[in-house]
Design brief:
The complex is a heterodimer of chains A (about 50) and B (about 180). Chain A is mainly β. Chain A contains no helices and four strands. Helices cover about 0% and strands about 45% of the residues of chain A. Classes of the chains: A mainly beta (about 50), B mainly beta (about 180). Chains A and B meet through strand 2 and strand 3 of A and strand 6, strand 7 and strand 15 of B.
């Protein structure tokens, strides 16, 4: 699991670096992007998304 | 006969030959799901078929803010659309099923190509196409809105989401982008 910071540009949050193309799940939590990769446990509220 | 026979040379979109001899076929390895074939028309390299340009691998969820947020950025190579090419996008969003609005947009630069707002739904779609009108810098979308986006240079297609209530969740569950 890794996190990517977000920056506000023209009133839109965007990641400071490119988001990966092969993530199992990406969650923006209001502050940062959380990247779930193979082997990471997916939070229960996002299982089935 | 061997499975792979040399004869069609591999290139990337950036390093493909600047000249495109009529009838010459090349493979561009970094476009589409597993490369594409292009055929020279004497001037330019033209795609020989429709391609799946991008497929989302895993869902992207948004929660915790009411600020518009980038969910996905798809870099698109300049000239891939050609003069009369079309980008066709199909996306599925899932969301908290309540009365609060959830808004999703597809943007290129400062132009919003498509937008939708949903409430009281568990899932919905955002589908659109963008057609070059015999020019790489003049387009119509599926709502006949016109745009002047220069598709002869690299550009980004950006998908954003926005919640009316930060406690809700909006998820980009699936997305496919095709170049026709």
């Amino acid at each position: 699991m890794q996190t990517i910071l977000a920056v506000l540009v023209d009133d839109v949050f965007k990641p400071t670096i490119s988001l990966p193309n092969d993530a199992k799940l990406i969650v923006f939590n209001g502050t940062e992007y959380i990247i779930y990769e193979d082997g990471d446990e997916i939070p229960a509220e996002f299982i089935g998304e | 006969m061997p499975l792979y026979k040399a004869g069609i040379i591999d290139y990337t979109w950036e390093n493909k030959p600047s000249v495109a001899p009529l009838g010459q076929i090349i493979c561009v390895t970094d476009i589409g799901e597993n490369g594409i074939l292009c055929r020279g028309d004497g001037t330019n390299w033209k795609r020989t078929s429709h391609i799946t340009y991008y497929s989302l691998s895993g869902p992207v969820s948004l929660t915790g803010t009411t600020t518009e947020t980038t969910l996905l950025t798809i870099p698109i190579n300049g000239r891939i659309m050609g003069l009369r090419g079309r980008l066709v996008e199909s996306a599925v969003f899932t969301m908290t099923n309540n009365a609060n609005n959830k808004t999703f947009r597809a943007k290129i630069g400062g132009s919003t190509i498509a937008t939708g707002t949903s409430s009281n739904l568990y899932s919905t779609r955002l589908d659109f196409w963008l057609l070059n009108r015999n020019s790489q810098s003049s387009q119509y979308n599926n709502n006949t809105t016109s745009f002047a986006i220069d598709t002869s240079v690299d550009f980004d297609l950006v998908i954003t989401g926005q919640l009316a209530n930060a406690a809700d969740t909006l998820t980009l569950s699936a997305l496919t982008l095709e170049a026709l």
